[in-house]
TrEMBL record:
Its cofactor is FAD. Residues 102-203 form the FAD-binding FR-type domain. PROSITE patterns: 2FE2S_FER_2, FAD_FR. Residues 2-93 form the 2Fe-2S ferredoxin-type domain. This is 2Fe-2S iron-sulfur cluster binding domain-containing protein. SUPFAM superfamilies: 2Fe-2S ferredoxin-like, Ferredoxin reductase-like, C-terminal NADP-linked domain, Riboflavin synthase domain-like. GO terms for molecular function: 2 iron, 2 sulfur cluster binding; oxidoreductase activity. InterPro entries: 2Fe-2S_ferredoxin-like_sf, 2Fe-2S_ferredoxin-type, Beta-grasp_dom_sf, Cbr1-like_FAD-bd_dom, FAD-bd_FR_type, FNR_nucleotide-bd, MRET, OxRdtase_FAD/NAD-bd. Keywords: 2Fe-2S, Iron, Iron-sulfur, Metal-binding. The keyword ATP-binding does not apply. Pfam families: FAD_binding_6, Fer2, NAD_binding_1.
Length: 349
């Protein structure tokens, strides 16, 4: 057993043998920014003030050799080797913010709906207590017996009293788990989910205009965030720009129209990249953004999609005045596999 000390707050977290620093923090109910959980994105990078740790396998693009020399590490893969490990982490960030994840929570597939030629939506109901999560978080789903390793999928709905969870899974030709979901997983089957994970969450205290940018099944966490904000009576403008290749790749248009009708502050702006259609924008989001939002200096910006899409949108948003602290991203890495935590009680903040 090791001890993780957060500097400068002085807060301490116990880390069991074999656990990563990120896993230990999440079990204790603390939020450390993270995304891929596989040493590939660099979002969980922090400076280690003292103590020894095993960094594990990480990509140089996520943690450069120079950064390693300066003492930085990726906490999603780092495992303490010394009795105490001190990491640099601001007092404000050291507040409990997440529900500790739980492994192998049982759900039944109550429905599956084809949304596009390559995206299927799963509706899942819990057999036991509902999973407690924040809008924008994700879970892992898989079935090793069927050759489908656990993979990360964002939750596409806000928390509901009945505990229903909605997932939107894109068919990936080389993806064992996505093929299992599309070709084998049927209505009525029992599946096991682990989670929740991730820090792609909004701050309920922030009262600024919100801009959501999504492509493909990156729409899922955006739907969760938008539903939660609108449900709680968020009054500032909420704009959702969704990028698709062709009209057949657009989905949830009915829900978007309902939100626009019910909530006057919500606007849906779909854009197509491979065909033109009356009434719709045309072009990639970074190309059309300036005409729609010439000044983003006061906006909270949420971006979800492939890493390349996210990077391009971040650059475009910053060019229009968006600030780093107001930009939140979720970039999907195909082989990302979070290390699931053992069963633990749920702790709200």
């Amino acid at each position: 057993m090791s001890r993780i000390r957060l500097h400068p707050s002085g807060r301490e977290v116990e880390c069991a043998s074999g656990d990563t620093v990120l896993g230990a923090l999440e079990k204790a109910g603390y939020a450390l920014p993270n995304n891929c959980r596989a040493g590939a994105c660099g979002e969980c990078k922090v400076k280690v003030v003292s103590g020894n740790f095993d960094q594990g396998m990480v990509l140089d693009m996520a943690l450069s050799q120079d950064e390693r020399t300066q003492g930085f590490g990726l906490m999603c893969m780092a495992k303490p080797l010394s009795e105490e490990m001190v990491i640099e982490w601001g007092t404000e960030d050291a507040k409990p913010k997440l529900f500790p994840p739980r492994e192998n929570q049982r759900f039944v597939v109550t429905d599956r709906i084809p949304r596009t030629p390559r995206i299927v939506e799963l509706r899942l109901r819990p057999v036991g207590p509902p999973m407690r999560f924040w809008p924008g978080q994700y879970i892992t789903l898989g079935n090793e017996r069927d050759g489908a390793p656990a993979r990360c999928y964002s939750i596409a709905n806000a928390p509901r009293p009945d505990g229903e969870i909605v997932l939107q899974v894109t068919r990936v030709d080389e993806g064992q788990t996505s093929l299992w979901v599309h070709d084998k997983l049927g209505i009525g089957e029992l599946v096991k989910l682990s989670g929740p994970y991730g820090t792609f969450i909004g701050d309920p205290a922030v009262e600024s205009p919100v801009l959501c940018l999504a492509a493909g099944s990156g729409l899922a966490p955006i739907l969760s965030l938008a539903e939660a904000a609108l449900r709680r009576g968020y009054r500032k403008p909420v704009d959702l720009v969704f990028s698709a290749r062709e009209r057949s790749d657009l989905y949830d248009g009915g829900l978007m129209k309902y939100w626009e009708t019910k909530h006057r502050n919500f606007t849906y702006r779909p854009t197509l990249t491979r065909e033109t259609c009356d009434g719709l924008l045309h072009g990639r989001i970074p190309e059309v953004l300036a005409k729609q939002f010439p000044d983003l200096s006061r906006h909270s910006v949420f971006i979800a999609g492939s890493p390349a899409f996210v990077a391009d949108c971040v650059a475009a948003a910053k060019a229009l005045g968006a600030t780093d602290e107001m930009i939140h991203t979720e970039g999907y890495f195909g082989q990302a596999q979070p290390q699931t935590a053992p069963q633990s009680h749920l702790t709200p903040y």
